[in-house]
Amino acid sequence: MTLLVERPGPLSLVQDRGRPGLGHLGVSASGAFDRGALRQANALLGNDDGAAAIEVVAGGLVLRAAAPHVVAVTGAAGPVTIDGRQVPAGRALRLDTGQRLAVDPPTWGLRTYVGVSGGLAVAAELGSASTDTLAGLGPAPLRAGETLRTGVGRPPPHLEDVPALARTGEITVDVVLGPRDDWFVPAAVRRLLDDPWQVSPVSDRVGVRLTGGVLRRARDAELPSEPCLRGSVQVAADGLPIVFGPDHPVTGGYPVIAVVLDAHTDRLAQARPGQVVRFRRRP
Amino acid sequence: MNVRPCGDRAVVLDCTSLEEAQGWFAALHGQAEVVLGARTVLLRGEPSALRALVERTTPVAPGSRPDATVVEIPVAYDGPDLDDVARLTGLGTDEVVTAHTATPWTVAFGGFAPGFAYLVGGDPRLAVPRRSSPRTSVPAGSVGLAGEFSGVYPRSSPGGWQLIGRTPVTMWDSGRPEPALLTAGATVRFVAA
Q: Which residue in B6, B111, B155 is closest to A178 by CB distance?
């Protein structure tokens, strides 16, 4: 069973649950940025939770079926068509031989997930088919003309459509201060929590870069490199925060002022350039 | 050692030295997911359970650790920054090579890229700043210096370390049972080849 990539769009990657537990080797977990959307796609298809799917950044993906498939589209919201006819997201969809599935640029959010019954059959590296864009592990980004093999699917369960994700002009994520909030002046910690932050266009799977006021340090000393997490809010030398994504460096040399709650880091997968992010101290 | 908060799925043990951090790493490795930094240890898991685990754990004392693995790495000392390193350290190029090979190094922690190991404990005269402008591409196997550290680039990547040589040894291979050649705690000896 195969799917042909007719157009990959700006960036389409194979992602699964990633490769956790290898930080001591210098390897981040990687995996789907919006893990909830990956889980939804696989649930709709009756796949295992972490089966490999396509993470599409900013739409533009066109797939053609070389055999009948069942697919599901979750994550960012935007037009999805089969042979030009609009189809619903968040539902198992039949894709007949020769039909084209197109994911257009989303109207809300940034990352769309295209799952297929049986999952993508991609060679694993260190136990995962995820592409780690920083470490250079896993398959290369999808290319036009490439053929994707799929696993053997089960009949999809009868499920209601998954609800669309909450849409709002702002993304709010809860944080725990530390481990290095004491490296900043008190006004910087207040500014982090009180000010709106704009998502920079240079954001990617390594980190969501934010612009806004400068977070001034109380200590100018150099921080010895220390381990980081998905969700670590690192403040680089220019005083601007970067929230680390799934392909973050394992260790970083700048102080981490706060860490986003793990469950809230998925929301940052959908942060579009210019969108406002707010940090709320964990209540 | 202080336990610092690190989100809702980890804590950081803030130590006063690399040796202390290594002692905690050695004591906790296997009981939790542990990542070592230059002065810190990251523990992943539920924070209150991790704090309890740390309470009942005693760090391994330096010197009482079982004999570390020794890895020999042959190096051709012909790197593009060898002359700059000689100038910065006030040593001759031959003396740089002697200093790099005479003292055994220890793998402090991994980071930057899979299989990249930060090596410490070398000759203190070799401490040099990073290049003022990083190279866009450093070949795999390049042996470099930066600050108190030495390291070997496992694959071609951008990098700002001062390059003094190259080795044919494969530092990282995802297909090996232990993909990284150098893991935290190992001893490394560079040999001029």
A: B6
